Amino acid sequence: MPAIHYRNTPQRKLVLDIVKNRHDHPSADEVYEQARSTEPHISRGTVYRNLKLLSQQGLIRRVQTIGGVDRFDCRTGDHFHFMCEGCERVMDVDVPPGMDVDSRIVPPEGAEVHGHWVILRGLCSDCLGKERL
Ligand SMILES: [Zn+2]
Ligand SMILES: [Zn+2]
After folding, report:
1. pLDDT for 7-44, tens place per residue?
2. What are the residue boundaries of the structural domains of the chain, listed by start?
3. Residue 22 CA: which ligand is closest?
4. Do 2-63 and 78-132 agree at the fold level?
5. 2-63 in CATH: which number?
6. What separation in Å is there between the alpha carbon of 92 and the centre of ligand 2?
7. How far is the CA of 60 from the centre of ligand 1 (A)?
8. pTM of the predicted protein model
9. What CATH architecture applies to the domain 78-132?
10. The dihedral formed by the CA atoms of 21, 27, 28 and 30, expressed in degrees to the nearest 10
């Protein structure tokens, strides 16, 4: 067990560094592609496993999207996301201070709320610009 831990640590750090240095919410495949440029022998499975582990540890955040693949986020604090329906870019949306979504939405009778997941969707300014052409 300690041997496996030792071997995995530099790869985990590499995966963490890639997500921490990007602010565009990369997919697991995008993280994998970037990891390979530093560590050509890293496997897709290793990258996926480390992304899962780092998300569980709360060091990064997994962002589910609408009909797309999951993305990974260096910002772990409370914020929402905007997903562009044109280019599938995911952008951060700040939550207004004092806005307590969990206490203002009434869950189904008898249910217990563990959190919320908000994604705004629409078109980004780049895609709107393209449509005007
Ligand atoms: Zn767009
Ligand atoms: Zn984000």
Report:
1. 568 999 999 999 999 989 999 999 999 999 999 999 99
2. 2-63, 78-132
3. 2
4. no
5. 1.10.10.10
6. 4
7. 24
8. 0.82
9. 2-Layer Sandwich (3.30)
10. -70
